[in-house]
Specification:
Blueprint lengths: L9 E4 L8 E4 L1 H8 L1 H5 L6 H48 L10 H10 L1 H44 L4
Antiparallel strand pairs: 1-2
């Protein structure tokens, strides 16, 4: 089965706890990046097609940023849930035969640092934060390229240059 949603490159973020698997399309970005040299040597007859390509790349990056942002909220909730389980279940069990002075912030951090579920949840949040930054940079590149194209076209119009 081949449709528009499954064609091109897809970035997959694996599921973790309450965060479902995330599939992000990258084909619009790839097309825009492959056409970047054309922006440098703009020919007026290509302007509309190039502008459309870069706007499509921007829209795809924006969609991906929204999806990653939503997943990031869920991932942060996962971290808090795992942390709650550790504080409410694991720490009291570990403190059963220890003096009361053992229940301090350093002890709680040490327990969380060794908990695999907590580490996975925190790593997931960090990866999603990096991906969000990545897609926001995609948007900025497309915005800057479109601005450059528009300035080039304005220059052509103002100077009477026809290409």
């Amino acid at each position: 089965m081949s449709d528009e949603k499954t064609q091109g490159t897809t970035m997959v973020v694996p599921a973790l706890n309450h965060c479902p698997e995330l599939r992000l399309q990258m084909s619009g970005w790839e097309i825009a990046m492959s056409r970047m040299p054309e922006a440098k040597t703009l020919v007026a007859s290509n302007y509309l097609d190039l502008e459309f390509t870069f706007q499509e790349g921007w829209r795809e990056a924006k969609r991906n940023a929204i999806l990653v942002g939503d997943a990031l909220k869920k991932a942060k909730q996962n971290v808090e849930e795992v942390k709650s389980d550790i504080i409410l279940d694991e720490i009291p069990r570990l403190l059963e035969d220890k003096p009361k002075s053992a229940n301090n912030a350093d002890f709680r951090r040490a327990v969380m640092a060794r908990n695999q579920d907590y580490q996975k949840a925190v790593t997931h949040v960090e990866k999603l934060e990096a991906m969000l930054e990545h897609f926001e940079s995609h948007m900025k590149i497309m915005e800057n390229t479109s601005r450059f194209l528009k300035k080039q076209m304005d220059y052509f119009r103002n100077t009477g240059i026809t290409l």
